[in-house]
Specification:
The protein has 253 residues and is α/β, with parallel strands linked by helices. The protein starts with 6 loop residues before the first helix and ends with a strand. The protein has 2 domains: 178 residues, 3-Layer(aba) Sandwich (Rossmann fold); 63 residues, Single Sheet (N-terminal domain of TfIIb), CATH 2.20.25. The protein is built from 8 helices and 11 strands. The model has no long low-confidence stretch (mean pLDDT 96). Helix content is 28%, strand content 36%. It binds S-adenosylmethionine (SAM). S-adenosylmethionine binds next to strand 2.
Length: 253
């Protein structure tokens, strides 16, 4: 099932994640992009948080996403001659008539795939679109046992101006469903407009993974080789890791 970002959540995405996320993962993904020769695909490209900088650096990068409203934000940042690089497609069944040296799914894109069938389809579809020796790199958070046990109850995780004199607030509630391995997340945005205060809510499930489920999943897929690291600096997994960064490799021949 697809869970598209609603318009106002796309509208405020950059404001929120520039502050909450850029410093965490940007350099890791940009180093990968810089060291890659050939074509790159970002699945779940969103508003282009990584894509725009990659393109400016000269990368031959393409982007797909299932959320029309996220892509609309991205189109506005792009020169018309680059629009062909972006398309409304899912990582589960996207199609290109060329292959990529590197495919990325940065910042929880894979966690939007709830069912194991669509996860395997996505992995195999990415595999099919890689050149021999190509890599697919995606991330997932290591489940926090406190959140799995108690959830999060209306926590304000962003409260700042989105433009001079206008406040934006985001309140997060997270309800764990252990049997289905899903965190049901409810985001509430409250923001000031000239006419007064507006509010909107959006509920989205996120599939969480433990290490050995990820390993079994990839071993069921067409990928012949993989490794998992524990942070965006390249550290090996250890008992306090907060991230799974999964590097899937297609053999050279
Ligand atoms: C948290 S955002 C990450 C955006 C961007 N990669 C970044 O790092 O800022 C997750 C994105 O994944 C997209 N997405 C969710 N399911 C998807 C799917 N099946 N195929 C492609 N994109 C998907 C969402 O629409 C959203 O734009």
């Amino acid at each position: 099932m697809k869970h598209e970002y609603p318009e106002n959540f796309s509208r405020f995405y950059d404001t929120i994640y520039k502050k909450m996320r850029d410093g965490t993962d940007s350099e890791y993904f940009h180093d990968l992009i810089r060291e890659t020769e050939g074509k790159i695909l970002e699945t779940g490209v969103g508003t282009g948080r990584h894509f725009i900088r990659a393109l400016k650096d000269g990368a031959d990068i393409y982007g797909i996403d299932i959320s029309r409203s996220m892509l609309n934000v991205l189109y506005k940042k792009l020169d018309k001659k680059e629009h062909h690089r972006i398309s409304l497609q899912s990582m589960v069944d996207f199609s290109f008539d060329f292959r990529f040296n590197l495919v990325l799914a940065p910042f929880r894109v894979f966690m939007h795939l709830i069912e194991k069938e669509e996860q395997i389809m996505a992995l195999n579809n990415v595999y099919k679109h890689l050149v021999p020796g190509g890599r697919f790199i995606f991330d997932a958070f290591v489940p926090d046992t406190g959140i799995l046990h108690q959830g999060i109850d209306q926590q304000t995780d962003f409260d700042d101006e989105y433009e001079p004199g206008k406040r934006l607030k985001r309140i997060v509630t997270s309800m764990p469903d252990l049997v289905n391995q899903v965190l049901n997340i409810l985001f509430r945005l409250e923001w000031e407009e000239d006419e007064g205060i507006k509010a909107e809510e959006w509920g989205v499930p996120m599939r969480f993974f433990f290490r050995y489920e990820l390993e079994h999943l990839i071993e069921r897929s067409d990928f012949e080789d993989y490794s998992i690291i524990g942070d965006y600096k390249g550290s090996p997994l250890h008992k306090d890791s907060k991230e799974f960064i999964i590097i899937c490799k297609k053999l050279s021949s």
